[in-house]
From TrEMBL:
Name of this protein: Outer-membrane lipoprotein carrier protein
Compartment(s) where it occurs, according to its Swiss-Prot or TrEMBL record: Periplasm
Purpose: Participates in the translocation of lipoproteins from the inner membrane to the outer membrane. Only forms a complex with a lipoprotein if the residue after the N-terminal Cys is not an aspartate (The Asp acts as a targeting signal to indicate that the lipoprotein should stay in the inner membrane).
Subunit structure: Monomer.
Chief localization: periplasm
InterPro entries cross-referenced by the UniProt entry: LolA/LolB/LppX (IPR029046), OM_lipoprot_carrier_LolA-like (IPR004564), OM_lipoprot_carrier_LolA_Pbac (IPR018323)
Chain segments annotated as coiled-coil in the UniProt record: none
Species the sequence originates in: Chitiniphilus purpureus
Keyword set, alphabetical order: Chaperone, Lipoprotein, Periplasm, Protein transport, Signal, Transport
Length: 207
């Protein structure tokens, strides 16, 4: 199960039948949401559902400083940390005493983290469409343009100019749902949040 947690940061609309105005509205909504956000922090609850098996839930905290910096910290049921410093992305597993580092572009292109922490060049990596409102949220769907993306589609629920929920479908039919709570936008964040130094004795794997 732990390996699925890590895929989130590494770690969103399609169909030619949709009219261009609707597509433009979807992109504009997300761009407006992101352009008004310099920093964002809060808590998240993540539920991963595979095609067979019991759903697995995890919780933690996150912080984002746009463009390109983020920290995603799982606290339960396993401790894991994912840090993007703008040039590299670190994935640290304290239990395994292992840290994996990837180039920032390779780790984030066509990924959920690129949506939240990246710039506003959304149409370079995604095609968009508007979905019906549900649960008091305005919903969008994003489909990565790259065929080697780990995700088939990403849905975002927006309210009050903030992304409140995300739903990710990967290429194997696994669904990851994320709910954000206690959101604080545009507060000053400690720069140390977005730096990672492997602890002594930790194996470092470079990809």
């Amino acid at each position: 199960m732990k390996k699925y947690l890590l895929t989130l940061a590494l770690p969103s609309f399609f169909s030619l039948a949709w009219l261009e105005p609707a597509r433009a509205d979807a992109v504009a909504m997300l761009k407006n949401t992101l352009s008004s956000t310099v920093t964002l922090q809060g808590r998240f609850t993540q539920t991963v559902t595979q095609q067979s098996g019991k759903p697995q839930q995890s919780q933690g905290q996150f912080a984002i400083q746009r463009p390109g910096k983020f920290r995603w910290s799982y606290q339960a049921p396993y401790e894991q940390v994912i840090v993007g410093d703008g040039s590299s992305v670190w994935l640290y597993d304290p239990d395994l005493r292992q840290a994996t580092v990837k180039a920032f572009g390779n780790a984030l292109e066509s990924s959920p983290a690129a949506l939240l922490a990246g710039d506003n060049a959304l149409e370079d990596n995604y095609t968009f469409k508007t979905l019906p409102a549900k649960g008091g949220l305005s919903w969008l769907e994003a489909q990565p343009k790259r065929e080697d993306s780990g995700f088939a589609s990403i849905k975002l629920g927006i309210r009050a100019d903030q992304v409140q929920e995300m739903e990710l479908l990967d290429r194997f039919g696994q669904v990851t749902r994320i709910r954000f709570d206690e959101l604080r936008r545009n507060a000053k964040l400690d720069a140390a949040l977005f730096r990672f130094t492997p602890p002594k004795g930790v194996d470092v794997v470079r990809e």
